[in-house]
Amino acid sequence: MPKTAASTAPATLADQLARDIQSGVFGTGAWLKQIDLQERYGAKRLDVRRALDHLTQKRVIEHVPNRGYHVHAIDEQRQNHVRDIRALLEVGAAADLMPQVTDAKVAQLRALAERFEQLVLTGTLLQQYEVNLQFHEMLYDLCANRELVSLIHDMRSRAVAAPATQWMTRARIEKSVREHFDIVAALQARDVKRLQKIIREHVMQTMP
Question: Could you read off the pLDDT of 79-89 as tens digits, one per residue?
């Protein structure tokens, strides 16, 4: 059913498309033809292109030059390897960042955790993604070892984005909310071991 013009601005269209990918309307590896998306969403060609480019930047989909856009054909083994390396780096970062923790930084991270919680209830999928990203960037920016920070960001960039893979169930995204607050609590208590445990669970996507 074509959508109204008001619902197909590029940002809104990108979120609609991300939700359809998440829900399985467009399966793993599916090619996203612009003409089909124009018809499905009642959108202008330029708005579809902007939405596709936006989702490409967020790693929800992939652009192949001279061929088009497609949903990530996930190499499960590669993603598992990336996840394992992320866990090693990010758990290791907990001890490095703890000496730089201040009450002001804890308050800033708590505000982002609260914002993420609110967006889970009222926001769009991509708004949730952006605030989640801000939370983790602020957390690891506390590290004194800047090479470690660089490696963490590099490995996070190799993983497929959360809207496409990590938040496939309501239970998982709600667990992410709780883990953010648990991270803040561990930072406030200056509890490195507790922080390492939470980060590992968060990266490994352990289900409840």
Answer: 889 999 999 99
Q: Classify 161 in phi/psi space as left (phi over 0), alpha (psi -120 to 50) or beta.
A: beta
CATH number at 102 reads: 1.20.120.530
What 149-155 contacts at long range (C-beta under 8 Å, 24+ apart), as own/partner pairs, is: 149/93, 151/89, 152/86, 152/89, 152/90, 152/93, 155/82, 155/85, 155/86, 155/89
Residues 47 and 32 in one domain: yes
Q: How many domains, the chain?
A: 2
Residue-range definition of the domain harbouring residue 170: 76-204
Query: DSSP per residue over 195-206, as a string?
Result: HHHHHHHHHHT-
Would 4 be classed as within a structural domain?
no
What is the pTM for the complete model shown? 0.77
